[in-house]
Amino acid sequence: MLPVLVVHGGAGQIPKERVEMASAGVRAAARAGYAVLQGGRSSMDAVVEAVTNLENNPSFNAGYGSVLNVKGEVEMDAIVMDGRTLASGAVSAVRNIANPIQLARLVMEQTSHLCLTAGGAGQFARAMGMPEVPGDSLITEYARMRWKKNLAPNANPVESQMGKMG
Amino acid sequence: TVGAVAVDEDGNIACATSTGGMLNKMEGRVGDTACIGCGGYADNRAGAVSPTGHGEAIMKVTLARLILFHMAQGMSPEEASDLGLATMKERVEGLGGVVTVDPQGRWAARFTSTQMAWAAAQGGTLHFGVFSGE
Q1: CB–CB contacts below 8 A, A to B
Q2: What was the ipTM of the complex prediction?
C-alpha cells in the first residue's frame, strides 16, 4: 500500500492577493501530514496533524482565522472518522479552543458519544485538560474586516455569498 | 473549512474536517462539518471524503456518504466525487468541493466552486492546485 494524504483549504472564491498564501498553506499541511505517514503512524494521526496545521494557519476558515458569526464571535465545528472501526467524534459551536480537530478526536476516543456541542464541548475540553484560549486570539483582522463588510446594509451580494461557503 | 483524508501503510483510512462555519452565521448555527456522513466519512471498505462548500446543501445530500456509496458501487474517486458534487448542484443548487481517497490509495480533489486550494502527497510527489483543471 502506497500511503497517501490529501488536504483542502476550503471551496469558494479566493481573493487574488490570498491565492499564494492558500496554496502554500495546503502544501505545508500536506507535507506535515504525509511526514506522519512516512513515520509509520496511522492515517488518523496524519489527518489530525494536517488539519491542526491548517487550523493554525490564518489563511483558512478554521481555528485561528475562522469567520465570525453575526455577533462577531468565533464558533467552530470539527469531525474525525476512523475507517477501520467506523469510530467518529465531532464538536460543534465550540469556542475558545485553538484546535477543535483535536477535541473532536478526544470525543471519539474518550466518550461513547459522536458529537458534543457548545458549552458541553467546552466543559469536556476542560475535563480533558485542553487549554482554553481567549476568543479574540482566534480572530484575525481579515476576518473582522469581512464581518464588518458583510454587516453593512449595502453589502455586495456576490461577496456576501462567497462567505456562505462553510 | 479545511480537511484531510489519508490511507496509511496498513490500508487504514481516516478523514478530518474543521471549520469556522459561514460568514456572519446565526449564533448556534451548525453546518455540515460536525455531522457524520455530511462533513466527513471514512470506511476502509469504500474510502474517505472531506467536503467543503455550502453547508446546508452538503447536509441535504449527505455528500460524503453519497460519494462513498458511488465508490462502493465501483466508481473511481474522481468519478464519484464529480457525480456527488453534480447531484448537489442539480438538486439543491449547492456548490463545493471534496478531497477523496479509496482503499487502493487512489485520490481526487474536485470542486464545483470557483476555486479550492488543495494538495496531495503520495510516493514522494506533491500535487497541488487552486483553480479548476490544475
Answers
A1: 336
A2: 0.98
